[in-house]
Amino acid sequence: MTASAPGAPGEGGRPGARDIPVWDPLVRLIHWSVALAVLLNATVLDPEGRPHEVAGYAVAGLVAVRLAWGLIGPGPARFATFPPNPAAALRHLRHWRAGAGTVHLSHNPLGALMVYNLWLTLLALVVTGVMMGTIRFFGIQWVEEAHEMAFDWLMISVALHVGGVVIDTLRTGVPLVRAMVTGRKRVPAGARVR
Amino acid sequence: MTVLPTGPGGRRALSLAVLILLQAACAAFFLGDVLIDFEATAANDLAHVWVEGVVSLALVAAIVLQLIELRHVMQRTERAEQGIRAARGEMQALIGQFFDDWALTPAERDVALLVLKGIDNEGIAALRGTAAGTVRAQTAAVYGKAGVDGRAQLLSLFMEELFADDSPDDRAPTARTGSGNG
Ligand code: HEM
Ligand code: HEM
Questions:
Q1: pLDDT tens-digit profile of A133-185?
Q2: Residue B27 alpha carbon to ligand 2 centre in Å
Q3: Which of A28, A137, B81, B89 places its Cα 20 to 30 Å from the Cα of B179?
Q4: What does the DSSP 8-state code read for residue A174?
Q5: Rounded Cα gap, residues A18 and A6, in angstroms
Q6: Calpha distance B172→B178 (Å, rounded)
Q7: Is the CB of A42 under 6 A from ligand 1?
Q8: The dihedral of CA B111, B114, B116, B121: what is its sign?
């Protein structure tokens, strides 16, 4: 929503590049708030303290809204735009290695799998975290272990997630992190867009 | 980089989004607490927990309604932007049509466009790197070809087009300004 027409040719500095709005404010706010809350819980907040639980609940609320938005939100935010499709993800991986880069306005098929994995892992963290607080599961070993395992898996996933973002940015020339900040993907001239 | 939206519709969408997320964080906190309380509470205190639960669910319902409202705000903003873009494009085509019809030279077209943008003769001379006298001659030629006697009348030709609500096909400049080339 800049002063000039969205998607106008030449906008965004580079000649021939197009700036296409993809991520709405809700998607962007949720992404960076979740990343911040996870970072806080993983580093500075005492796992046994109240703030750890509050941050965890915030993550739960944010992810829940994002999942609802996946049903009723605008095109790029919708599940229907990036359905989980392992076959397409494998194809995408092969194309990656072959060097053919198609620009996806929503998540690419491989990124889509990662996104579902991240959401499920976050929910698992919250569920096991809340379970630890209930009388029924208080002090039960496997719940605590599940919480820790989910956290380890989240860290591995985030590392792969950020790695994938970097590789895709280099492959397609679309600065993806900038898109998650400004909401707009800058697509180089002549790129195949889907 | 424009991180924050600029238009009124964009700002409204942003504040609605922030509001939704704050409420969602609260709702999740209450619901989680209700779950834990529900287990830990003696039967005679359960009424309190039930109230908390119902309030949380009401909050969730409010959030869903606001999500739908946000979607509508975003759709309205998008439609408005499309309208502005279309109007801008149409206006450009219209100006081009007039200029074609008046058979302006390329230099005269540039000058006429700057006149329409409200830049005075000295400004135009500075922008184009020509003498003020040249610009005066060029604007005079434009006014002559358009059949108007100055800047204000030239502008009013286009203003008239903006306020006319006939279909675009009837807007051929020749049909409205018969004095065009004569
Ligand atoms: C705890 C840390 C993080 C988590 C849990 C996380 C999770 C997610 C999720 C769930 C999405 C999908 C967004 C949606 O559709 O709503 C996403 C997208 C994205 N994330 Fe992260 N993220 C994290 C950290 C980061 C970091 C540090 C970066 C920056 C390098 C980053 C860059 C991106 C980008 C660029 C996208 C959009 C990818 C695309 O264009 O398809 N994320 N992330
Ligand atoms: C995104 C959300 C969350 C993250 C990233 C997270 C992360 C962590 C981490 C890294 C630990 C330390 C594990 C260890 O001892 O090695 C931990 C422990 C714990 N977390 Fe979470 N957590 C999250 C959500 C929650 C929630 C929602 C709750 C409760 C409502 C919760 C309650 C706890 C508890 C009770 C412990 C164990 C403390 C102890 O006995 O040492 N967590 N969490």
A1: 777 777 788 888 999 999 999 999 999 999 999 988 888 888 899 999 998 88
A2: 19
A3: B89
A4: -
A5: 9
A6: 11
A7: no
A8: negative
- Give how far the C-alpha of residue A187 lies from the chain's centroid of Cα atoms, to the nearest Å: 20
Instruction: Quote the ipTM score.
Output: 0.77
**Model pTM greater than 0.90?**
no
Q: How many pairs of residues across A and B have Cβ atoms under 8 Å apart?
A: 93
Contacts 24+ apart (CB under 8 A), A4-11: A5/B81, A5/B85, A5/B88, A6/A184, A6/B81, A6/B85
Give tens-digit pLDDT for A34-51: 999 999 999 988 888 888
How many CB atoms within 10 Å of residue A31? 15
Q: Provide, rounded to the nearest whole percent, the portion of chain A with pLDDT above 90.
A: 49
Locate the domains of chain A by residue range: 21-100+109-179
Asked if residue A65 has its Cβ within 6 Å of ligand 1, the reply is: no
Domain segments of chain B: what residues? 7-83, 103-171
- Whether residue B21 and residue A62 make contact (CB cut-off 8 A), yes or no, is yes
| Residue A126 CB less than 6 A away from ligand 2 | yes
* Intervals of chain B under pLDDT 70: 1-9, 39-44, 164-182
Q: Does domain A21-100+109-179 have CATH number 2.60.40?
A: no
Nearest by CB: A57 against B32, B70, B77: B32
| Contact list, B67 vs chain A (CB under 8 Å) | 65, 68-69, 72-73
Residue A100 is which amino acid?
Answer: A
Locate B54 and state its tokens: 């119902």
- Cα–Cα distance measured from residue B125 to residue B134, given in angstroms and rounded to the nearest whole number: 8
Across the interface, which of A25, A134, A182 has its CB nearest the CB of B13? A25
The DSSP secondary-structure symbol of A134 reads: S
The closest alpha carbon to A180, from A194, A164, A192, belongs to A164
